[in-house]
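Bumping my old thread because nobody answered last time. Still need a sequence for this structure:
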């Protein structure tokens, strides 16, 4: 019998890049940017027919817990867990491993971010199912790689080694992980053709991840084992989680593990990291403008407009602006400054952050 597949959805985040729509209590994954559902709800919906709701865990934080619970009412309440402190992705993974250990030590586990845009749900489920089978049969840690569409210096990269299967999706041995490169190195990766974007999606058996945690970061393995038998999970989290090392899963595990595989995604993928990235999914208007609301345009080009109240917006004589309007805040900036929006957020009144 195949092992049961569980999912850990990572739903934290600071809510800075998509200000003023996003806030600390409602970051990107809790926004309805591209449909009538939040990005977190879309992530859960992609698992339909593959993983039942009782095998989906959502990891968030105390600031966002109420909002997450409000949009995830069909997920069992005990499967939504708030980290008492921000400790990066390796402790988050260890927490998820501990939760699943309590249920099924023979399980296979997928780790998925809550804020990525994937529209081809059928191929996503096919690839995740294939990844679970490969992870279960090989005992490897498996990561899902995205074929680059441009030389992005903002992503980590995975260098592919030998292909180990003949069917689809393709599965490769991993030669090494590469951190975010400069622009020239990213161009080199693209030319070589054997590098894939690291999307932060992983699949592994509980046995394999516990083995690697024990080898590489024993303190995280010990924490997961304590979770397995803890009579009071909340008490354990509150007393021990903030003491765990603050380290990413790439540094703690993936770059050091002896047996790592990479499945090449056949589905579309976008991490939608800024308003500029989001613009290509908004309604296009003449002059290269994009918006989620009706526009009147005069000598205006390449602007991005998003309103939470569907206001009619008129633009005249302006170019390359980002205009984001909510009930209590308005952002106007040059589109070249999209990546710097997070720098202004700490200077905004705290009740608007």
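Sorry it took so long. Here it is:
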């Amino acid at each position: 019998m195949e092992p049961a597949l569980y999912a850990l959805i990572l739903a934290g985040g600071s809510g800075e890049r998509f200000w003023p729509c996003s806030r600390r209590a409602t970051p990107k994954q809790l926004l309805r940017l591209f449909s009538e559902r939040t990005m977190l709800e879309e992530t859960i919906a992609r698992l339909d027919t593959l993983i039942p709701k009782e095998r989906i865990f959502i990891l968030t934080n105390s600031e966002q817990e109420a909002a997450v619970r409000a949009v995830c009412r069909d997920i069992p309440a005990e499967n939504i867990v708030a980290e008492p402190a921000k400790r990066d992705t390796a402790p988050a993974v260890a927490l998820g491993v501990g939760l699943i250990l309590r249920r099924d030590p023979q399980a296979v586990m997928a780790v998925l971010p809550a804020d990525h845009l994937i529209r081809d749900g059928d191929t996503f489920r096919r690839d995740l199912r294939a990844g679970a089978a490969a992870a279960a049969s090989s005992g490897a840690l498996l990561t899902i790689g995205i074929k680059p569409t441009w030389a992005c210096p903002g992503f980590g990269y995975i260098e592919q080694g030998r292909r180990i299967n003949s069917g689809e999706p393709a599965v490769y041995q991993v030669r090494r992980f590469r951190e975010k490169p400069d622009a020239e190195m990213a161009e080199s990766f693209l030319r070589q053709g054997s590098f894939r974007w690291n999307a932060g999606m992983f699949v592994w058996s509980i046995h394999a991840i516990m083995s690697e945690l024990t080898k590489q970061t024993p303190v995280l393995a010990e924490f997961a084992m304590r979770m397995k038998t803890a009579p009071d999970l909340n008490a354990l989290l509150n007393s021990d989680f903030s003491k765990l090392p603050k380290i990413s899963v790439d540094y703690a595990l993936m770059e050091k593990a002896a047996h790592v595989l990479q499945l090449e995604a056949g589905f579309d993928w976008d991490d939608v990291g800024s308003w500029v990235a989001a613009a290509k999914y908004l309604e296009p208007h003449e002059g290269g403008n994009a918006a989620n609301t009706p526009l009147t345009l005069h000598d205006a080009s390449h602007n991005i407009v998003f309103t939470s109240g569907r206001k009619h917006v008129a633009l005249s004589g302006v170019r390359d602006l980002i205009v984001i309007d909510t009930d209590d805040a308005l952002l106007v900036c040059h589109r070249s400054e999209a990546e710097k929006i997070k720098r202004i957020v700490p200077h905004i009144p705290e009740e608007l952050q």
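The chain has two domains: 5-264, 275-352. Let me know if any region looks off to you.
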